[in-house]
Task: inverse folding
C-alpha cells in the first residue's frame, strides 16, 4: 500500500483499476481503468497505463474515480455556526444574520468559518467552492476570508459581498478596488473572484453602479434570484434591460421566477445554482430543475450554508434528484396519472455536480472532467469497510444514492493529494477547531444566553389535530 509520504513529494500518482466516470463530452465510463496525474495535470486515463518510474500508486479496486465536485454557492463564514439554524425559515435567517447578529462577526470569525468550511469541502471531495461571502463589513474581514481560503489546499472563488451596506456603496469604496487589485490580479486558478449581491427590483435600479464596477473589473456577478417575495422577476428584467446579464452571471436558486425571466437567462447564457436542501427547507421556491431543463439553462449545484444544511454534494445530488421526481409524481397524481419513466437521471445530477459547476465558473477548460491536459482535481470513492460499496453495478446511481462523504477515500486538488485513505493531508483540523470554538464562545457572549437559546429554537406554530370520525376503543378481555 502507498505510504502517505509517497504522495507528498510531488511525484506522479496513478489511480489503478477503478470504475472511472470521466464526465467528458460522451460521459465515457471506464471499468478497471487507471488515471495518471503528473504535476498539476491529468496526463492519461485508460486501461493498464504505463507510468513513469517512481509513480505513487493508489489502488482503486472496488471504487469510483470521478472529477472533483464543484459547489457554486456557499456562505462559508456561517460554518462557524454549524447547525444552529436547523429549524429556521428564510425569514428567521434574515432576521438573525441581516438585522440582528451578522454585524457581530469580526474578521477572525469570518476566518474561522471559512477555514473550517474549506477543510470540510475538500474532505467531502468538493475540490472547488464559491465562497458567497456576504458579510465583509470591512477590508479586514475580506482579507481574513481570503487568508483562510488560501490556507486550505482547495480551489476557491471569493464572491465578495456585504449585507451590512448597499452594493453600490461597498463596491464604490477605493479600498475595495485596492483589495481586488492587491489579491486577485494575475489570474490564479486556485483563487478566483466574483462580486456577490442581490437585486430586489427597485425600479430606480441603484445596483447599476455595482454592476458597472463588476464590468470594469471584468469579474462575474453572482446573485440570489427568484427568492420568494425577496428577489423577483423585476430584478431579472432590470439586469437584462441594462445589459448586465452575461454568460458568467450565476442566478442562485432561480426558483420563484416566471417563464419570461427564464427566457432572459437562457438568451444571455447565464446559469442557475440550485441549493435543493435550502430551497426545500427555507422557502425560496421549489427547486426549478424541470423549468431549467425546459429552457436550456445550465445548472450547477450548491449547499448554501451549513448553519442549516449539510455541505457535501452527495447530499445535494440526492436532494436534487429526489425533489425533481417528487414533484413529477405529485403533479401526475393530482391529475390521476402515473409517471412510468423518470425524466431526470442520476447521471445528469452527477454532471451538474461536476461539469455544471466548471461551466458556470468559466473553468471548464481546467476542471469538471477527467481528461488528459486538464487540472488534476480527482476524487476516489472507495470504502473497503463499508457494506454499501458492493455490488457496484450502476456507477452514477451509486454516487448519487449509495455513496456519502465518509466514503471519500482520496482527494487530489491541482495534482496534490489533500486527502488519502480517508484522512486529510496537510490541513490543521485542530487549529480550525480552536478558532471556531473561540468564535462560538465570543458570539455566545455577544448574544447572551437567552437570545442564543431563542435563536436556535424558534417558536413552533400550533398544529391542529383533526377531529377523527372513527372512535378507537380498546377493551381488555
Ligand atoms: Zn445563499
Result:
Amino acid at each position: 500500500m502507498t505510504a502517505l509520504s509517497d504522495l507528498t513529494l510531488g511525484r506522479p500518482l496513478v489511480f489503478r483499476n477503478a470504475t472511472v466516470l470521466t464526465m467528458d463530452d460522451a460521459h465515457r465510463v471506464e471499468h478497471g481503468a487507471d488515471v495518471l496525474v503528473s504535476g498539476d495535470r491529468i496526463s492519461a486515463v485508460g486501461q493498464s497505463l504505463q507510468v513513469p518510474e517512481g509513480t505513487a500508486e493508489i489502488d482503486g479496486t472496488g471504487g469510483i474515480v470521478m472529477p472533483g465536485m464543484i459547489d457554486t454557492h456557499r456562505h462559508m463564514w456561517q460554518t462557524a455556526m454549524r447547525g444552529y439554524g436547523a429549524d429556521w425559515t428564510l425569514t428567521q435567517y434574515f432576521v438573525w444574520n441581516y438585522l440582528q447578529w451578522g454585524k457581530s462577526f469580526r474578521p477572525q470569525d469570518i476566518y474561522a468559518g471559512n477555514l473550517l468550511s474549506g477543510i470540510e469541502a475538500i474532505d467531502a471531495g468538493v475540490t472547488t467552492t464559491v465562497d458567497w461571502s456576504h458579510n465583509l463589513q470591512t477590508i479586514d474581514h475580506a482579507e481574513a476570508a481570503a487568508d483562510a481560503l488560501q490556507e486550505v489546499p482547495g480551489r476557491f472563488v471569493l464572491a465578495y459581498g456585504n449585507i451590512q451596506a448597499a452594493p453600490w456603496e461597498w463596491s464604490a469604496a477605493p479600498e475595495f478596488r485596492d483589495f481586488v487589485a492587491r489579491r486577485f490580479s494575475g489570474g490564479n486558478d486556485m483563487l478566483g473572484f466574483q462580486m456577490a449581491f442581490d437585486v430586489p427590483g427597485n425600479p430606480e435600479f441603484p445596483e447599476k453602479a455595482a454592476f458597472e464596477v463588476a464590468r470594469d473589473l471584468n469579474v462575474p456577478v453572482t446573485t440570489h434570484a427568484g427568492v420568494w417575495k425577496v428577489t423577483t422577476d423585476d430584478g431579472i428584467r432590470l439586469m437584462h434591460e441594462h445589459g448586465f446579464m452575461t454568460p458568467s452571471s450565476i442566478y442562485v436558486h432561480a426558483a420563484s421566477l416566471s417563464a419570461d425571466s427564464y427566457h432572459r437567462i437562457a438568451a444571455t447564457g447565464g446559469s442557475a445554482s440550485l441549493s435543493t436542501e435550502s430551497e426545500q427547507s427555507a422557502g425560496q421556491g421549489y427547486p426549478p430543475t424541470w423549468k431549467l431543463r425546459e429552457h436550456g439553462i445550465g445548472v450547477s449545484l450548491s449547499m448554501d450554508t451549513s448553519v442549516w444544511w449539510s455541505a457535501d454534494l452527495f447530499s445535494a445530488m440526492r436532494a436534487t434528484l429526489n425533489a425533481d421526481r417528487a414533484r413529477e409524481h405529485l403533479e401526475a397524481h393530482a391529475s390521476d396519472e402515473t409517471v412510468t419513466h423518470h425524466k431526470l437521471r442520476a447521471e445528469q445530477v452527477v454532471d451538474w455536480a461536476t461539469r455544471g459547476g466548471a461551466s458556470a465558473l468559466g473553468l471548464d477548460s481546467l476542471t469538471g472532467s477527467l481528461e488528459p491536459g486538464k487540472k488534476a482535481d480527482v476524487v476516489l470513492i472507495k470504502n473497503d469497510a463499508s457494506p454499501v460499496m458492493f455490488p457496484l453495478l450502476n456507477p452514477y446511481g451509486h454516487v448519487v444514492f449509495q455513496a456519502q462523504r465518509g466514503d471519500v477515500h482520496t482527494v487530489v486538488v491541482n495534482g496534490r493529494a489533500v486527502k488519502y485513505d480517508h484522512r486529510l493531508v496537510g490541513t490543521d483540523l485542530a487549529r480550525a477547531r480552536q478558532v471556531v470554538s473561540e468564535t462560538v464562545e465570543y458570539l455566545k457572549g455577544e448574544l447572551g444566553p437567552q437570545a442564543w437559546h431563542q435563536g436556535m429554537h424558534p417558536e413552533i406554530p400550533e398544529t391542529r389535530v383533526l377531529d377523527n370520525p372513527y372512535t378507537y376503543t380498546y377493551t381488555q378481555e
About this structure: The longest helix spans residues 429-456. The chain is about 35% helix and 20% strand. The longest strand covers residues 29-38.
